Amino acid sequence: MIAGVATAGPWTRDLGSFYLQAGTDVYIPTEYVEQGDTLGGVSDDTFTGHLYTLYGEFGVSPGHPVQVAFSLPFARYRVEFEREDAFRKAVGSVTTNRLQDLRLLPQVALHPDAPIAAGVEFKVPLYSNDSICEDYELFRDVCAVPGHGQTDITPWFLAGGSAKKAPFWGEVGVGYLHRMENFNKWRTEIELVDGITWQTTVGANLGESYWMLKTKGVKNLQRDGITNEYATVTPSALLTAWDHVGVDLHVGWEVWANNQSRGVSYGVGVSWFN
User: Fold this and answer.
1) SS3 for the chain, per residue?
2) Under a CB-based contact definition with an 8 Å cutoff, are residues 29 and 262 in contact?
3) φ, ψ at 179 (rounded to 5°)
4) Phi and psi angles of residue 137, each rounded to the nearest 5 degrees, phi first
5) pTM, entire model
6) Which domain holds residue 217?
7) Model confidence over 215-266: pLDDT tens digits?
8) What's the total number of domains in the chain?
9) Cystine design at 231: which of 57, 154, 217, 263 (Cβ 3.0–4.6 Å)?
10) Does residue 4 sit within a domain?
């Protein structure tokens, strides 16, 4: 699971306000688990993931604050493998390039002054697992897939606050992750379970820089052998480079994971905002 560059918070933007970020992450798992319709435990293959993401937030309402956030990621996965049976030994690597899941989050402010908001996030797959390595049937069990390729719907409640006489702030978000089973051109009979998802941030504004500690995760409502769940911790910094332009640096650790890989991601992003 790669950390990605940004997520929406409880401060809902007014009309004309925007935030854009282009970023890249490198993910190196300490435990690599191949995704698909079955899970075979931790793999001996070597996996490296690169994620390139465009993220944005836009205020869209001339009256009451309403904003729309989106995330559009493109991933490049490389798997180095070694396979051996009684007749042959194969050593090689497979690289896949795919758009991942488009995420849209419209949200509305629930209070005229306090940073409290509600929204609904839609995750729409932009890939089909059946098409990955379809011309290389011998190595399809090696090729990495971005996920399960189905739509998620997540209602969110977001709240935040800041200290009056100190440069500190915090925010929290809690959502109900409903995993649908309308798989995008993928022939599978797996059944996924829903979960509770969350995100938190504590931060400090130190001059022209913002230092943050973020957490994010999903805890499934039922245990099964296929649906992923995880918890990440991500220290990050947003450094103002020029007027309305910033540089984001972050490192993410998966401190707990089930039915998915576990590792570390390193990322950088360039932001433009007003």
Assistant:
1) CCCCCCCCCCCCCCCCCEEEEEEEEEEEEEEEECCCCCCCCEECCEEEEEEEEEEEEEECCCCCCEEEEEEEEEEEEEEEEEEECCCCEEEEEEEEEEECEEEEEEEEECCCCCCEEEEEEEEEECCCHHHCCCCCHHHCCCCCCCCCCCCEEEEEEEEEEECCCCCEEEEEEEEEEEECCCCCCCCCCCCCCCEEEEEEEEEEEECCEEEEEEEEEEEECCCCCCCCEEEEEEEEEEEEEECCEEEEEEEEEEEEEECCCEEEEEEEEEEEEC
2) yes
3) -90, 115
4) -55, -35
5) 0.90
6) 18-273
7) 999 999 998 888 999 999 999 999 998 889 999 999 999 999 999 899 999 9
8) 1
9) 217
10) no
- Tokens standing for 5? 């560059």
Q: Supply the mean pLDDT for the chain.
A: 89
What share of the chain has pLDDT > 70, as a percent?
Answer: 94
Structure-model confidence comparison of residues 94 and 50, the more confident one: 50
pLDDT for 149 equals: 85
In a domain, 9, yes or no: no
